[in-house]
Input
Amino acid sequence: MRRTLTLLIAGLVAGVLAVAGAASAADAPPEIPLTIDKDQFQPSEVKVKANTPFVLVVTNKGAKAAEFESKDLRVEKVVPAGKTVNVRIRALKPGAYAFFDDFNKAATGRIVAE
Output
């Protein structure tokens, strides 16, 4: 009887974990690619769905470090040369949000939440 109860509890726990894992995978925020190449962001304008969090996948193809920064979003992230970093962005209200490379002020762009 005790063994049956233990197996039943183990099965229930495994089932709950499987459902939770599937739910969290389904809720994964969308990933949006952004590249820094030749001292410019490509694309310079990123469109996202308003009120939905997302992840910017920023790849620096340059030979020196860059920094993704946005005062509007209160985000700063250094991107080493030749590397990729993920920048999690909270759900945004509709509007435009500027960003730039703090190491190269000429590299600018914006996120448009629609």
